[in-house]
Amino acid sequence: MTSDPSFSIPARPTRRFPHGSGVEYEGGTEFELIPDAERTEPELATVVTDILAAGPYRYGDFHDLPMPLWLVRDEDTADVFRVAVRDGTVRLHVLPTTDEAGLRRFYERLCADDPSLSWAVDRRVDGGGQ
């Protein structure tokens, strides 16, 4: 685990509302949180669900997707972001108004859940947004 990973957000997604088809995001930043020991998707989904249930989060999940995905609001920081579990990692997807504080707090709670487990943070940026 990096002792103090950066959660700076160099690119934010652009939100579009195509006629009759909801919302789409273009570009942005994603943080991939990678455990130092292999975990299954169900194990990671349980960890994420436990963290969200402990608060201070308001959240909802998407039931009809091939992977666990939640829309999350940190009630303390007012940050909204998506959390996904995929390929043995936890991914934090930045939304247009997400700030660094909410992402960092989620990461800290993830690290505190199992202190014997370390997490690497890989930031991916798609310049298609702002």
Any idea what the shape is? globular
- Give the proportion of residues in helices: 10-25%
Mean pLDDT: 87
Structural Rg: 14 Å
User: Which stretches are low in confidence, meaning pLDDT under 50 for 5 or more residues running?
Assistant: none
Distance between the termini: 29 Å
Which structural category do the helix and sheet elements fall into? alpha+beta
Number of strands: 8
Largest sheet: 6 strands, antiparallel
Largest sheet strand order: 4-5-6-7-3-8
How many alpha or pi helices?
Answer: 2
The portion of residues forming beta strands comes to 35-45%
Element-level helix/strand string: EEEHEEEEHE
Region (Disordered): 1-22
Describe the structure in your own words.
The chain is α+β, with helices and mostly antiparallel strands and 130 residues long. 22% of the residues lie in helices and 35% in strands. The chain is built from two helices and eight strands, in the order βββαββββαβ. It has helices at residues 41-54, 100-113, and strands at residues 14-16, 24-26, 28-35, 57-61, 69-74, 80-86, 89-94, 119-126. The strands form two sheets. The chain has a six-stranded antiparallel beta sheet, with helices on one face. β5 (69-74) and β6 (80-86) form a beta hairpin. It is globular, with a radius of gyration of 14 Å. It starts with 13 loop residues before the first strand and ends with a strand.
